[in-house]
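hey so i finally got around to running the thing on that chain from the lab meeting. sorry it took forever, my laptop kept dying and i had to restart like 3 times. anyway pasting the input first so we r on the same page abt which one it is
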Amino acid sequence: MLGVVLWSDSNDNKAVIWCEDHGDLAFFNGGTDTPLDFVDLDEGDLVRFDLSEGTQTRFAKNPRRVGQGVYAGLADRLQNTPSSSPAVQHDAVQDRAVRALCSAEIIPFATRKSDRAKRELVAV
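ok and heres what got predicted. didnt touch it at all, straight out
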């Protein structure tokens, strides 16, 4: 999964990541188990990570920086964007399923039963 770091704390190796699927935010908590070659994550960094989901929280595992500061200031822009409606909590998985069902265009196949009835079967 790709995402953008909205907030980070390099002292505690923690970060909050906005995911490409626009679902719930993912939380990274590196703690003391962070590898020695780990690159600190900064606000605005584009990262690739493995996503795991708990009962109510998404976790970013093994984050790797793809681009440094590519989306600097994104957190401020999101915070300052006016909302046209009151905040509503959505179930991201259900929303994606509904969009997928509603966006399908069903094209019926032309029925050609009369053509089939007219054909003769020939044994070879």
